[in-house]
């Protein structure tokens, strides 16, 4: 058990708060490999739970898991022009083995569209072979200049889905389906509300025709892209000369999608729910839902017996509990539970046994509740659902309250500087987006499917032209 | 659905048989990255099931999953001398990013002892922090010169466990515990019998004091190492200066273990059970346990309805079935089911509905069984258990019948040439092992824990000295 350090308050310095809680919460460690992190057991358990929830939904929709090589031959990556330009500066490159130079260089995959395209070429000849719906859970590398644990690391873990379809309509529909799966898993399990939409042409994925995105809001007001799904059109299938005979016996290129979510969701979870006491893990994604703290001056066998009984009673309701029977004081035990984000704790001592009562403390709002011993497991079950709901509702209110609209660029700059998201009419192009970002730090997050707030002004704050396109801007991770 | 090619018979050319069945069975594809393979859905599902079975057993024994970086800085790998010498020629090396040379080279992990040691250094200060029991499920790279799908590929998937303990006894005990977990999972689920033992000094892992191994026998008589668990002593903890205060307040180096199993188990499964019709997947590890084949001249709705009912009835018993209602003929459907290794199939046609019967065909021995429709799910459940048992028992008999002993090197050479494993007294050293391997192709597989056959001759066939050490030799993958 680690000594707990002081946590910088969120409103004093959010970036330092983040670093403090992930280190105190035992989520990660820095290792010898710069720009990469070590995912320690608690963080990795969050990822395992995200994987489990997602993978079930994938398989329900016909997704088959596969594994493709880590290394991409140089010649292969270069086949799709936009794609290679998008990734080139970040490519870690293997040039030698055992001290000897290789004939051809290999890139460590930054993503695997090219490898999947190369595979699909041999898998499809007729419309009967379509769709092909593959996914892999793997590590990828992008040599980022500035990194931030979980949010932006040179190596990260993700799933990448890759599909091909016989029609454009079917491919777009599938890209949207996966986008919806992401939204549901992220909102229902991670309790992170998201805004759904499309990226502008300037912000879309290198090689995509459409990029669907989910944008979530961190407690400091910044946006975080939490999952993207791309309609690739025929960009890769043409570049890789993938063809099939359609039902009119014509040879055409199939239509592709790709879609991914990453370990940055761990960062999103921390910055959506955490407070000045540490991280908060939503019950549905927590490895341990309940900490049972034995409170005593000197070890008490009755207390330990009750702790074990409670643990069993909770397990019978599919609630995983962990017992702290160490010799530390009650203050330390409570802080230790809080800093690791366990959503609910139970404190039991000799007095509680005499009074036939147990004390619950909710991690989300620190509310204290007592129950009889016999009722404890039922109460725990109810409280965990309340905590899950409250985390989501609180985050949703924060999101809604922090989106504003503007009528001029001056107002835009003020709103962004105040930490707001701006939703407004905008018909600028990519160059305009670059300028706005340089001046304000805000980028276009998406063109939302549904308006997050009501806006009636349809004059672009930047070009002063009338437009039907309403865009969401924010500073982002 | 793919056209099925002819499979070379096992006794004509085992290597070609293997290549034929893995390609016909849709298990893998060669991609653009030489020496690596693409794990297609069926093969990956086997790996997912192996992972699931292993991971449950790991967690019961206190194992916590983590994720450490893919890249190892050159300086870090060089800290343990034997270790770096063992791996050096096979190290894929990243020297540049986006065309620019890096200040320090990075190796793609061939295994991660050094990264874990570097992490442990900061995790432990007192005996209260021990043991630390970590594992990761990851990809690794070893640039092998000759490769063979699943068995030996430059990149493969595995789990690597890494632990440190406060005493040598506890570490050895834990290495043995994990060795036992491997044995149980491999025998009970993959139906592959194994011989347990230790490696000789010559064959042990680079950096280990003891290597425990499991050796299994393929249908061509060759051995395949199916899992290893290493007692590392203080080799890495000394090299990395990892220390802790023991319960006598003395500063000492902890004792380490590491243990791994890989995707070569997929190859082991194929070469243990497969026959001239294709692969055979043991029921406990199969994605699809039962293929339901609709047999008809022209589509019959009643047959399809029955197929759906049977699928549901099987699912209620946790048996996963797949329906083939395509327009292909019955011969094709049966061959297609067989080549993909589904352990049991049901054939139903219009006549069966009239007769209230269904036909089962076992994949392992092609036995045909009929049952009433109502009894079908119960019969399927019984048959799957029988198939699982029969696959294991057949393999076990083959293993036992193919181990012989020898009284001279001449007999040894003859036995090895005939495809046998040899169990005999041997007190030669590493140089002797090298010579024997050069001359016969056979290497020491292990010093078995229990004698696989009775041997009374305690004179070494090579040195002619008396010895108490009995060693198992075989040609191996």
Automatic annotation (TrEMBL), chains A, B:
<dbReference type="GO" id="GO:0006433">
    <property type="term" value="P:prolyl-tRNA aminoacylation"/>
</dbReference>
<dbReference type="InterPro" id="IPR004154">
    <property type="entry name" value="Anticodon-bd"/>
</dbReference>
<comment type="subunit">
    <text>Homodimer.</text>
</comment>
<dbReference type="InterPro" id="IPR045864">
    <property type="entry name" value="aa-tRNA-synth_II/BPL/LPL"/>
</dbReference>
<dbReference type="Pfam" id="PF00587">
    <property type="entry name" value="tRNA-synt_2b"/>
</dbReference>
<dbReference type="InterPro" id="IPR017449">
    <property type="entry name" value="Pro-tRNA_synth_II"/>
</dbReference>
<dbReference type="InterPro" id="IPR004499">
    <property type="entry name" value="Pro-tRNA-ligase_IIa_arc-type"/>
</dbReference>
<dbReference type="GO" id="GO:0005737">
    <property type="term" value="C:cytoplasm"/>
</dbReference>
<keyword id="KW-0436">Ligase</keyword>
<dbReference type="GO" id="GO:0004827">
    <property type="term" value="F:proline-tRNA ligase activity"/>
</dbReference>
<keyword id="KW-0067">ATP-binding</keyword>
<dbReference type="InterPro" id="IPR002316">
    <property type="entry name" value="Pro-tRNA-ligase_IIa"/>
</dbReference>
<dbReference type="GO" id="GO:0005524">
    <property type="term" value="F:ATP binding"/>
</dbReference>
<feature type="domain" description="Aminoacyl-transfer RNA synthetases class-II family profile">
    <location>
        <begin position="44"/>
        <end position="282"/>
    </location>
</feature>
<keyword id="KW-0030">Aminoacyl-tRNA synthetase</keyword>
<dbReference type="InterPro" id="IPR006195">
    <property type="entry name" value="aa-tRNA-synth_II"/>
</dbReference>
<keyword id="KW-0963">Cytoplasm</keyword>
<comment type="similarity">
    <text>Belongs to the class-II aminoacyl-tRNA synthetase family. ProS type 3 subfamily.</text>
</comment>
<keyword id="KW-0648">Protein biosynthesis</keyword>
<dbReference type="GO" id="GO:0017101">
    <property type="term" value="C:aminoacyl-tRNA synthetase multienzyme complex"/>
</dbReference>
<comment type="function">
    <text>Catalyzes the attachment of proline to tRNA(Pro) in a two-step reaction: proline is first activated by ATP to form Pro-AMP and then transferred to the acceptor end of tRNA(Pro).</text>
</comment>
<dbReference type="InterPro" id="IPR002314">
    <property type="entry name" value="aa-tRNA-synt_IIb"/>
</dbReference>
<protein>
    <recommendedName>
        <fullName>Proline--tRNA ligase</fullName>
        <ecNumber>6.1.1.15</ecNumber>
    </recommendedName>
</protein>
<dbReference type="Pfam" id="PF09180">
    <property type="entry name" value="ProRS-C_1"/>
</dbReference>
<dbReference type="InterPro" id="IPR016061">
    <property type="entry name" value="Pro-tRNA_ligase_II_C"/>
</dbReference>
<dbReference type="InterPro" id="IPR033721">
    <property type="entry name" value="ProRS_core_arch_euk"/>
</dbReference>
<dbReference type="Pfam" id="PF03129">
    <property type="entry name" value="HGTP_anticodon"/>
</dbReference>
<keyword id="KW-0547">Nucleotide-binding</keyword>
<dbReference type="InterPro" id="IPR036621">
    <property type="entry name" value="Anticodon-bd_dom_sf"/>
</dbReference>
């Amino acid at each position: 058990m680690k000594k707990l350090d002081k946590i910088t308050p969120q409103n004093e310095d959010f970036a330092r708060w983040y670093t403090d809680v992930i280190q105190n919460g035992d989520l990660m460690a820095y290792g010898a490999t710069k720009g990469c992190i070590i995912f320690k057991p608690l963080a990795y358990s969050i990822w395992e739970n995200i994987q489990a929830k997602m993978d079930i939904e994938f398989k329900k929709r016909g997704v088959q898991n596969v594994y493709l090589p880590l290394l991409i031959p140089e010649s292969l990556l270069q086949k799709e022009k936009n794609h290679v330009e998008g990734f080139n500066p970040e490519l870690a490159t293997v040039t030698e083995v055992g001290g000897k130079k290789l004939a051809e260089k290999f890139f460590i995959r930054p993503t695997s569209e090219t490898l999947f395209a190369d595979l699909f070429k041999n898998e499809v000849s007729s419309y009967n072979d379509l769709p092909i719906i593959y996914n892999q859970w793997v590590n990828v590398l992008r040599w980022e200049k500035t990194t931030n644990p979980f949010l932006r690391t040179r190596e990260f873990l993700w799933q990448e889905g890759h599909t091909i379809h016989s029609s454009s309509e079917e491919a777009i529909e599938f890209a949207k389906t996966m986008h919806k799966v992401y939204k549901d898993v992220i909102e229902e399990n991670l309790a992170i509300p998201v805004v759904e939409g499309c990226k502008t042409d300037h912000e879309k994925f290198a090689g995509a025709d459409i990029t669907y995105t989910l944008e979530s809001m961190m407690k400091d007001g910044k946006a975080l892209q939490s999952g993207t799904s791309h309609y690739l059109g025929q960009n890769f299938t043409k570049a890789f000369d993938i063809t099939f005979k359609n039902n009119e016996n014509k040879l055409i290129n199939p239509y592709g999608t790709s879609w991914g979510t990453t370990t940055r969701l761990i960062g999103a979870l921390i910055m959506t729910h955490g407070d000045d006491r540490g991280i908060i893990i939503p019950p549905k994604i927590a490895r341990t839902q309940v900490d049972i703290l034995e409170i005593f001056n000197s070890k008490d066998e009755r207390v330990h017996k009750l702790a074990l009984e409670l643990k069993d009673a909770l397990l019978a309701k599919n609630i995983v509990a962990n017992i702290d029977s160490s010799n530390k004081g009650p203050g330390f035990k409570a802080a230790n539970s809080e800093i690791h984000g366990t959503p609910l704790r139970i404190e039991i001592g000799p007095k509680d046994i005499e009074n036939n009562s147990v004390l619950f403390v909710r991690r989300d709002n620190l509310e204290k509740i007592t129950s009889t011993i016999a009722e404890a497991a039922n109460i725990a079950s109810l409280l965990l659902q309340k905590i899950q709901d409250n985390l989501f509702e609180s985050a949703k209110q924060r999101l809604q309250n922090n989106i504003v609209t503007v009528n001029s660029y001056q107002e835009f700059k003020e709103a962004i500087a105040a930490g707001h998201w701006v939703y407004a009419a905008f018909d600028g192009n990519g160059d305009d987006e670059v300028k706005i970002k340089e001046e304000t730090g805000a980028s276009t997050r998406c063109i939302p499917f549904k308006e997050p707030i009501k806006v009636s002004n349809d004059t672009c704050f930047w070009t002063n032209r009338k437009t039907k396109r309403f865009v969401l801007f924010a500073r982002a991770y």
